[in-house]
Design goal:
It is a single chain. By secondary structure, this protein is α/β, with parallel strands linked by helices. It is built from 9 helices and 10 strands. A 6-stranded parallel beta sheet has the order 7-6-5-9-8-10, with helices on both faces. The chain has a 4-stranded mixed beta sheet with strand order 1-4-2-3. Helix 6 links the parallel strand 6 and strand 7. Helix 5 runs parallel beside helix 9. The longest helix has 16 residues. It starts with 5 loop residues before the first strand and ends with a helix.
Length: 244
């Protein structure tokens, strides 16, 4: 974790949140309870900021600074407003392509996905405010800088984005093994949003209930699943194949 993108100490983090800094994630030491830490926890909940409660040893590994039981990462990018971005995309001549990441947790997978998304013409990436991977130095490096070339939007929950997009005529397609339908039977030529799930659990059940289409990739080997960034690339390039 680089010093330039970290904030140390409960009070400093509280002030950063109040100043509307783009907080990526907050790490809090387990077992600490005092008026200031409770104030911070209330702010975290109100703002929907991603938080992990970790042992003191974990915080020491993250930084040698005097962290006082709290470290926050500052996002190196400013997140775009979802409704404004979506409205502009859907008002354009090109058919929109959105990418929704449901609880993706690995920052390197996140970076690889951003890179592929930028290369395949994705118009915007939507992530949840909490529970997903933050944008870190590793994300930027893995994305080869693509993180600066594509709008990334945060929403309270992926369901919020789905409801909004469906109401605007956008087809929602979930990449999931819980279907018999292959990706190649899906028509991607109209406005589309592709939902990719987490590395371990895939798309969450509540989100799966809302999507319009469920599709999977054919797998011929003994391994039953692909890395999420690889699977995402396969889905996005099927969109490219159909549209171009």
């Amino acid at each position: 974790m680089s010093k330039e993108t970290n904030i140390y100490g409960t009070r400093a983090i509280i002030e950063a949140i109040k100043a509307k800094k783009e907080i990526g994630k907050i790490y809090l030491q387990k077992g600490i309870s005092n008026p200031l830490s409770k104030q911070l926890e209330h702010l975290i909940k109100d703002e929907g900021i991603s938080v992990s409660y970790v042992p003191e040893e974990k915080l020491h590994k993250l930084s040698s600074q005097n962290h006082q039981g709290a470290i926050a990462t500052i996002s190196p990018i400013r997140f775009a407003d979802f409704s404004q971005v979506a409205e502009a995309i859907l008002a354009g001549e090109k058919k929109g392509l959105f990418l929704l990441l449901d609880q993706l947790s690995d920052v390197r997978n996140f970076g690889a996905i951003i890179r592929t998304a930028e290369c395949t013409g994705v118009d915007a990436i939507i992530i949840p405010k909490s529970g997903g991977a933050p944008v870190t130095d590793d994300t930027i490096k893995t994305s080869a800088g693509a993180v600066f070339n594509i709008p990334i939007c945060k929403v309270d929950h992926i369901k919020d984005a789905i409801f909004y997009l469906q109401g605007s005529g956008v087809q929602i397609v979930a990449a999931t093994e819980k279907t018999d339908d292959l990706i190649y039977a899906v028509d991607f030529k109209d406005h589309t949003a592709i939902v990719m799930g987490s590395e371990g659990k895939g798309v969450t059940p509540g989100v799966l209930k809302l999507v319009d289409v469920k599709a999977k990739l054919p797998l011929s080997g003994k391994i039953s699943s692909l890395n999420v960034s690889v699977a995402c690339g396969a889905f996005l390039y099927e969109v490219v194949r159909q549209r171009y």
